[in-house]
Amino acid sequence: MDQTISKLDEKMQFFQEMLIQMVNRVEEAIYQAQYAFRNHDVELAKKVITNDWFIDQLQEMVENDGVRLLVSETPYGHYMRHIIAGIKIVSSLERMGDHASHMAKMASSEEEAMFIPFVERISEMALLGATMTRKVVEAFIDVKAEKAIEVALLDDKMDAERDALNADLFALRPETEAEMERILNLFYLTKEMERYGDHVTTICRWIVYMDKGQRPKLNGPKKTE
């Protein structure tokens, strides 16, 4: 019996390491995406977009490994909760990687002066997303519901900044079609960053499930499942 548990623990460790690697890649992606967006680094933006493929591959690897563990190891108790949560978490991580890639696609070689303050503020939203990602992996490693709940609270800042940015963008008066297109792109990015925070909140809910066996609503009446 002890030997069976030991082998299962080894397999669970590998499963968790792949998941953590995926989180780390997502954190790197959002950090690099905001840097490329803020500093007009088109080459770095291309790298972020290309590297999104690796995040997608890690999602598939974690999901496949999780299914194998459920089928072949017949896990019980906290083992089963961890596998189920891991399979769900990678779905959110894949979407977070997409949001980082979308931000990178908005990087341009130059920016009109009227949009620079908005670029800065959206980049700060992305940096908040990177911080949330780092904190959520710490909560995941420790399997601490309390830490996860604290991370989810940071999403309130993301939501508030999105509302403020949208109001200021709406107040702009574009004079050309190009300016109107850029305003729409910036609206789109504020939504992308807000959704990024929602996905972190979803991960937090699954960490609470891993620890407590429950998935409470966190940080608002309606969050990403």
UniProtKB/TrEMBL annotation:
Pfam families associated with the record: PhoU (PF01895)
Residue ranges that the Swiss-Prot or TrEMBL entry lists as coiled coil: none
Record's keyword terms, sorted: Cytoplasm, Phosphate transport, Transport
GO biological process, one term: intracellular phosphate ion homeostasis
Protein's UniProt keywords contain GTP-binding: no
Annotated Gene Ontology cellular component terms: cytoplasm
Domain PhoU: 20-106, 122-207
Cell compartments where the protein resides: Cytoplasm
Entry-linked InterPro entries: PhoU (IPR028366), PhoU-like_sf (IPR038078), PhoU_dom (IPR026022)
Its biological purpose: Plays a role in the regulation of phosphate uptake.
Family, similarity comment: Belongs to the PhoU family.
Subunit structure: Homodimer.
Protein name: Phosphate-specific transport system accessory protein PhoU
Species whose genome carries this gene: Sphaerochaeta halotolerans
Name of the gene encoding the protein in the UniProt record: phoU
